[in-house]
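Shipment paperwork, digital attachment
Item: protein structure file
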Amino acid sequence: MSTNLRIPTTVELNSDRRVGADEPGVTRRSFLYRSGALTAAGALAGSAIGLPTSVGAQGLGSGQTRLNFRDIRRHENDHVDFLLKALGGNARPKPTFQNLLQPNRREFFEVSQDLENTGVGAYLGAAPVIFSRDILAAAGSIALIEGRHAGWLNTLVNDRLTANVFGEEQSFERALTIAEVQTLVSPFIVNLNGGPPLSFSLTPSAANDIAILNFALAVEFLEADFYNLNVPEFIR
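Attachment content:
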């Protein structure tokens, strides 16, 4: 694993990193409703994520909305590049994904919201067992950007500013467990392609930091591929 974990000030966006055409499928939001995964993942009994009846005040056609989604796409690709460089030869291969391309902009906005809130909770859940201070600082830097994405997307779809992936309004961010992250991302993953499992130990160690970074890399691969497909489709 590379010892240079300096957060880059500028990273060139690789505009060619785009997965092939993906078939529209079940979104994670609809998957959670049908499967009851919200309850299984620890949501309060009887709670549900309320689907908004209209998109937020910035609207579907807002120039700022278009700019923000392009920025989010770039950020997620930058996160992938950073983690690949940090892990070096220990980096996992990119998983094979499914159900990424959304049928319309409304679904795109809502699944974006869910993915970003999942990312925030995933990084927070891993933070207490990160062994290296440098890796903790890098993870915290990425998590804060994910949090900015999540808050903006929450308001875009008329949800509460600090609502988490379970729709709970909060003053303190709710960390996600490994099992919760697995449940939330599994509808999108077909194959890990020989990479390590989506897991890590709860005992801090240098070796475990590699597992944590690969755990994060799988989530970042998912987010980057999601935006690489949907931003050109819906944000013009």
